[in-house]
Specification:
With 406 residues, the chain is mainly α. The protein is built from 19 helices and four strands. 61% of the residues lie in helices and 2% in strands.
């Protein structure tokens, strides 16, 4: 949940930053710079402390990250401990958060942390809410704002609608919202499936019509994959006061006769459109976000549980594209028939819960998928989930911004 919420508040701030850079004059002075001090409690509950320490003793790069993090934060927070298995990604993530939350930008520091509060509260992540509350007050934020969203400036209240839709139903975002904001399965079996799919790729190639049919079938089937209901509970007042319309949440966009046009990546992609727009409106941020996407997507140690020298690219792409498929995003050159071959239904439930309702994710769910895989591999899966979701949200938001500007 914390990982997913981290992506959400970074994404929400990034979109708001883009809009403010487009609409306000540059050179606005900030209130000050400070590295946040998280309120974590010891090693992550997902990872055995013994395993964390063992990996830490073997990785010099991780030692450096730990030392830097401890020197600046005064402790090692839970998110850092979870990401420790992948120091390259951790370094990129920390750098991006530092840039978004502390470097010169279009928003005052207390605005940034308040947006972080709103984004984290949307998924009921009290850990990140408390982190941003701490830093909001440290940089001079008005304590009255913390009594509820209605006490914040209208500009931030207006952001609440965009925050709500981005968090749960990003395919509904239009240029009008931008205008408003301005005013497991077994390891061996899985590997065998990957091998057979590769052989099928080499032997035959499906037609464009068949590819489109498979996408629509997978998109339709994804609507009937239900998120976990293990811990469904209403938001507590401590969190819910930071956002409005608490009943608003993720809803499958193809149900109940509601039709949303397919988002074709060939028409609007991160690489060809989103990346350049972000860099245009918010210099250097596009490069940082793109680096994080690539590290999460390309990251591999060529292992699957006890097996070595395994090409995992097919599995990584299936996970990434399945998430985008759930949000109505289609890649014309991808055979969506591979998804059902590689991802079983229980794993899809985990994916959909983490991506769509991360506040319902539990330790039992984490422990129950891919039981034979290493913790580091399961952490990597979660990094793929949050980055694929973040890119999906950004694609819808950036396309709306593009339409607004043209």
């Amino acid at each position: 949940m914390r990982l997913a919420a981290t992506a959400s508040h970074n994404q929400a701030y990034a979109v708001q930053g883009l809009l403010c850079n487009h609409c306000t004059s540059r050179g606005r002075k900030e209130l000050g710079i400070r590295i946040p001090r998280p309120l974590g409690h010891g090693p992550s509950r997902f990872i055995p402390e013994k395993e964390i320490l063992q990996v830490g003793n073997e990785d010099a790069q991780m030692h450096t990250l730990f030392a830097d993090s401890f020197a600046t934060l005064g402790r090692l927070d839970n998110i850092t401990l979870v990401m420790v298995f992948h120091p390259q990604y951790l370094g990129s993530s920390l750098k991006t958060q530092h840039y978004l939350l502390q470097m010169d930008g279009p928003l005052p520091l207390h605005y940034r942390h308040y947006i972080g509060i709103m984004a984290a509260a949307r998924h009921q992540c009290s850990y990140l809410v408390n982190l941003h509350v701490n830093d909001f007050l440290h940089v001079g934020g008005d304590p009255k704002w913390l009594n509820g969203l209605e006490n914040a400036p209208h500009k931030l209240q207006n952001l609440g609608e965009l925050n709500k839709i981005l968090a749960h139903r990003p395919w509904l975002i239009t240029k009008e919202h931008i205008e408003t904001t301005e005013s497991f399965c077994e390891v061996e079996a899985l590997m065998e499936k990957m091998k057979k799919l590769q052989e099928c790729r080499d032997e035959e190639e499906a037609s464009q019509e068949e590819m489109a049919t498979r996408f629509e079938r997978e998109k339709r089937e994804s609507m009937f994959v239900c998120c976990s209901e293990d811990e469904e509970s209403a938001p507590t007042r401590d969190v819910s006061r930071h956002f409005e319309d608490t009943s608003y949440g993720y809803k499958d966009f193809s149900r109940h006769g509601m039709h949303v046009p397919t988002f074709r990546v060939q028409d609007y992609s991160w690489e060809d459109h989103g990346y350049s727009l972000v860099n245009r409106l918010y210099p250097d941020v596009g490069q940082l976000i793109d680096e994080k996407f690539h590290i999460a997507y390309d990251l591999t140690y060529n292992t699957m549980a006890m097996h070595k020298d395994v090409d995992t690219s097919m599995l990584r792409r299936a996970i990434w594209n399945y998430i985008h498929c759930m949000f109505g995003i289609r890649y014309d050159d991808y055979d969506y028939g591979e998804i059902n071959q590689l991802l079983d239904r229980s794993f899809k439930v985990y994916i959909k819960t983490v991506v769509c309702t991360p506040e319902k994710t539990t330790k039992r769910m984490y422990d129950s998928f891919w039981r034979q895989f290493k913790h580091s591999e399961k952490v990597h899966v979660n990094l793929l989930l949050i980055e694929a979701r973040m890119q999906a949200e950004l694609l819808y938001a950036l396309r709306a911004i593009t339409h607004y500007m043209t």
